[in-house]
Amino acid sequence: METFQQPKITGYRQLSEQEVALMNECKALAEQCGALVAKLRGHPATYSDGIPRMHETVGGEPKCLPSIDQRWVSIGATEIQQGFMALTRAIAQPTTF
Length: 97
Fold this sequence. Notes:
49% of the residues lie in helices and 8% in strands. The protein is mainly alpha-helical. It has a domain at 27-92. It has a two-stranded antiparallel ribbon.
């Protein structure tokens, strides 16, 4: 494997091949989580009466999607993003704030 020398970024060090592999594993899992969040965001929001307002068509037949509390989807997405940022920081170990 050819070694790539990253330009110096203040507060960061050159990562080892093992650290790069861990970072890439985190990024791949984050993408999977992002896809799940996007799927959940495709569902209708919960309304006070609990009745979904959107339908999708499957084979020409309307199909009700379950309503999802989009506020919690957004909270979950933010927390997941923060978690992956923390994992990235754990691997990179920056020396700056």
